[in-house]
Amino acid sequence: MPPRWRTVVCGTVVAVAAALTLWQLPYDARSLHADIANGRSQGDLRRQLAPARTVQITDPEALARAAAVLPRAARYLVLIGPHTPGAAPSNLRWVPPFADYWLLPRRRVGTVAAANWVLSYGGSLASLHVRFARIVPIGPGIAVAQVAR
Amino acid sequence: MTRVVLGLAALDACMLVVGWALLYGLGLVRDARNGVRHVGTALVTGWAATGVVLSLALALGVGFATATIAGVWALLAAAGLVAARFVPAREPARPAARETSRPWRLTAAAAAAGVAVLLLVLLVRAAAPTGVLYVDVWNFWLTKAKSIFYFHGLSTHAGGYTRYENPDYPPLYPAVEAVTYRFIGTTDTMRLPLEHAVVGVGFVLAAAALLRERVRPALLWPGLLLLLLMPMFEQLVGSLMADEPLAILFALGGVTGTLWVLDRDPRWAALAGLFLAGATLTKNEGLMLSVALVIPLALASGRIRRPRAAVLLAVGPPLVAFVVWKLWLSRHGVPASSHYHFSDLVHPGFLADRIDRLWIATGGILKQALHPEKTLLAIPLAVALSAVVAPRRTMLAAPLAAALAIAGYCVIYWISPIDVHFYLKAAPRIVTAPVLLCASLLPLLLAEALAARPASRSGARSPSPAA
């Protein structure tokens, strides 16, 4: 490339980069400040449960309460259904993976036969046709039940 | 909170020491002054090496425990010390460029101050994150990390590593997060962004240290300031997506790979090999990105003495990492979660039938990769400078790698049966790797483009062109 063209290209790149830097600086400052203010304005639990809200899980706090009931060695089944306010297939489908994320080291299993606990999120415990040693309500239409063995 | 901060400090101190040991072994850091200068390089080297060796150990059946982490670090430190007996100290290819005129010195100082402030702000922001907002983070990445932490490795039983979405994704990122959990004593996700920000800071400091020999301060610091101001980078750091370590590892591989072909020093090839092994073990497309980088580097290394040995240093680690992980998947019968097959590329009829997808994918990906606000034009600026340095093919390797990486994603979107518009939702994230590579190398590209000009007009003790 002729030296003149090289000068033009390098000069243009420097000018564009400098202009972008100066242009972006105030936006960046505002954005970072907003992020910091937003993060500090919320409590720990609310921030921890933020992912559940991004997929419209209606009562994420219920899963936090489930963690207090389920023993750490529990093997649990997640039962979902329409019997909780705001339940819809689009948000109910996220309950099992969010339970995985939130409730580990409790292990989610696929069948009631393999489970010693059931987390019912709007589901019907009676539909499982098993006896429960105890049922602990943790939200509207949401309960944790210990399977009787 | 004190426990968390102390735990993170201890973790980063350990990774820093391991990184220094490895750089000592490679002859890149042999005195205290160089050690301080390369604090960022040491941190990201220790972080990448921890991830790679721990992932391989887990894939070979070693359980995840404090003793395993300590063993990995002891092994890496010992490797560094042993290598130091055979590898001589590196003589700098040239003295670091310095500014001789006051305006350029002030420009460099102002930009360096800006970089320092932005790095500090990134750390402050990460200390109080708003929450995990990307579905993939909690849907499988961090759940896998918790699984490794609680069940002591790559379990395939209920709740185990393979029981979540994309079970065949490699384990580096979850394994490193599991190490963080171990050090902070909790699986509280809100504590992770701070560690990610520390690695992000390490990455920027590493880029500064690696490039300082070839780039004068008045180009280096404004270039890094541009990188830090790039919204794509700002959103990447602390996002907890695997794209974050993937992009950083790919960019580091590109920077060290470029130094290898410029300096003709195989030490850089070894570092590039480590970072690319890390990329390969982070996501499935990590191998594709590694290949996209190694091919142009290998082509550019033609004039290097004993190029095969150096190419082997760069290619060997990612290849070994890939094979070990594939063997683990095969032994445990884990099916591939990717819906595409590269073998479809040899079926012209199949490709022709879905040619529309290629145009849609290319348009969608390029729209993100060239997005002026999100990327601050990092790729177009790098391409423009590439035209200037084109006669020296050594400088073309990294921009070509970015182009190949983007082409690779376009091909995947072309041959996959999944709805292309669904795929394109991920486009803003997947382009971060090539964008970050170009942004990291912009100062070097500019310096090399200017290096051919008369030194008296540049206002600096300008380095002579290499290769």
Write a structural description:
- The complex is a heterodimer of chains A (149) and B (467).
- By secondary structure, chain A is an alpha/beta fold.
- Chain A is built from six helices and five strands; from the N terminus they run H-H-H-H-E-H-H-E-E-E-E.
- The model of chain A has no long low-confidence stretch (mean pLDDT 89).
- Chain A has helices spanning 3-40, 44-48, 50-54, 60-69, 89-92, 95-103, and strands at 75-80, 107-108, 117-121, 132-139, 142-147.
- A five-stranded mixed sheet of chain A has the order 2-1-3-5-4.
- With 467 residues, chain B is mostly helical.
- In chain B, 70% of the residues lie in helices and 0% in strands.
- Chain B has helices spanning 2-25, 32-37, 39-59, 66-86, 102-127, 135-151, 172-184, 192-211, 217-229, 231-236, 243-263, 266-280, 285-300, 307-331, 348-353, 355-369, 372-375, 378-389, 397-415, 420-424, 427-430, 432-451.
- The longest helix of chain B has 26 residues, at 102-127.
- Classes of the chains: A alpha/beta (149), B mainly alpha (467).
- Chains A and B meet through helix 1, helix 2, helix 3, helix 6 and strand 2 of A and helix 5, helix 6, helix 9, helix 18 and helix 22 of B.
Outline the fold blueprint:
The complex is a heterodimer of chains A (149) and B (467).
Chain A: H1 3-40, H2 44-48, H3 50-54, H4 60-69, E1 75-80, H5 89-92, H6 95-103, E2 107-108, E3 117-121, E4 132-139, E5 142-147
Parallel strand pairs in A: 1-2, 1-3
Antiparallel strand pairs in A: 3-5, 4-5
Chain B: H1 2-25, H2 32-37, H3 39-59, H4 66-86, H5 102-127, H6 135-151, H7 172-184, H8 192-211, H9 217-229, H10 231-236, H11 243-263, H12 266-280, H13 285-300, H14 307-331, H15 348-353, H16 355-369, H17 372-375, H18 378-389, H19 397-415, H20 420-424, H21 427-430, H22 432-451
